[in-house]
Design goal:
Number of helices: 12
Protein name: EDD domain protein, DegV family
CATH architecture of the largest domain: 3-Layer(aba) Sandwich
Pfam families: DegV
Low-confidence stretches: 1-13
Mean pLDDT: 90
Shape: globular
InterPro entries: DegV (IPR003797), DegV_C (IPR043168), DegV_domain_contain (IPR050270)
Structural class: alpha/beta
Number of domains: 2
Largest sheet: 6 strands, mixed
GO molecular function, one term: lipid binding
Keywords: Lipid-binding
CATH topology of the largest domain: Rossmann fold
Length: 321
């Protein structure tokens, strides 16, 4: 089913028991998250003309951003400033409504650590406040799928505490694979050595990345050319998707490559013709590190913790105490 989903069961205002704070690294269309009781924290990024806010492409287009990169722009990113977290958390407490913050992965940014610091200060000042922080261990539209479903669960009546507990478990079932086109962007971000970027470009090799249970990027393999890469994305979905549920929401997204996103949707539709697609664009913060041409598929899969080695599972249990 070739349909774009903006899951607005709550087009008309519905009562809910909690509010959400989300951040712009979820890379969802603004209209999907423009809901009552949802606050957006905008990550900053810097271009040659100064600092910008990642506002989910309300002020400028994805095409303009990625075209600037094609023309030589090398944007950089930064953490969310502490005062931004403090202002958002103070508003949440002052509202009197229990609130959950779903954060960009701590495995890819230090922003969650800043949020934890501010949260501790706020809770010391307001010990009775209900303000929960969840490290999603996800990024980009993978984080977006969790946010998308969290909104639905909130509207179905979960309390803030229940929603935080749900997210802490559900994050391990969000599966994603990304194909990266711009190896030089990965090199600039320190993800791969310069020699690998050079060789990969000459051989037309496309890295296939996933998100590990700890929220860090993991190399899943490579593809020789975009056509084969799109085929591999569809095969990854077919292999790892959870037990099929008719009308399941699957997120497809690209970094200014709409034709390839269309090809990916077509390939996925051949695997499962009941999919409801949520289509989006990779935002400027993530895009600064992956460059134009990245394409992604995100869906509900199995428990990613089962993919961990025995040694890593033991280490995780020790760390959790």
């Amino acid at each position: 089913m070739d349909e774009t989903v903006f899951d607005k069961e709550a087009d008309a205002p519905m009562p809910h028991s909690c509010n959400l704070i989300i951040d712009s690294c979820c890379d969802l269309p603004f209209e999907t998250v423009d809901r009552d009781g949802v606050e957006l924290i905008e990550f900053p990024y810097v271009m040659s003309d100064g600092e910008h806010a990642d506002d989910l492409y309300r002020a400028s287009s994805a095409h303009d951003f990625y075209q600037a990169m094609r023309d030589g722009e090398e944007p950089t990113t930064a953490q969310v400033p502490v005062p931004v977290f403090r202002a958002a958390f103070e508003r949440a407490v002052e509202s009197g409504v229990p609130t959950v913050y779903l954060s960009f992965s701590s495995g890819l940014s230090g922003s969650f650590d800043a949020a934890v610091l501010v949260h501790g200060q706020i809770m010391a000042e307001h010990p009775d406040a209900e303000l929960y922080l969840v490290d999603t261990h996800l990024a980009s539209v993978a984080e977006g799928l969790l946010v998308h479903e969290a909104l639905r669960q909130r509207d179905k009546g979960l309390t803030a505490r229940e929603l935080a507990q749900w997210a802490e478990e559900a994050r391990y079932f969000v599966d994603a694979e990304f194909m990266v086109e711009d190896l030089d962007a990965l090199r600039r971000g320190g993800r791969i050595p310069g020699s690998v970027a050079y060789a990969g470009s000459k051989l037309d090799v496309k890295p296939m990345l996933t998100i590990a249970p700890d929220g860090k990027l993991s190399l899943a393999g490579v593809a020789r050319g975009r056509k084969k890469g799109i085929k591999q994305l569809a095969e990854y979905y077919q292999k790892r998707v959870a037990e099929s549920v008719p009308g399941q929401c699957v997120v497809v997204a690209g970094a200014d490559c709409p034709k390839d996103v269309g090809r990916l949707k077509e390939a996925l539709g051949k695997v499962d013709d009941s999919i409801l697609f949520l289509e989006s664009s990779i935002g400027p913060v993530i895009g600064s590190h992956v460059g134009p041409g990245m394409i992604a598929v995100v869906f509900w899969g199995g428990d990613k913790r089962e993919d961990m080695s025995v040694a890593d599972r033991i280490a995780r249990k020790v760390k959790q105490g």
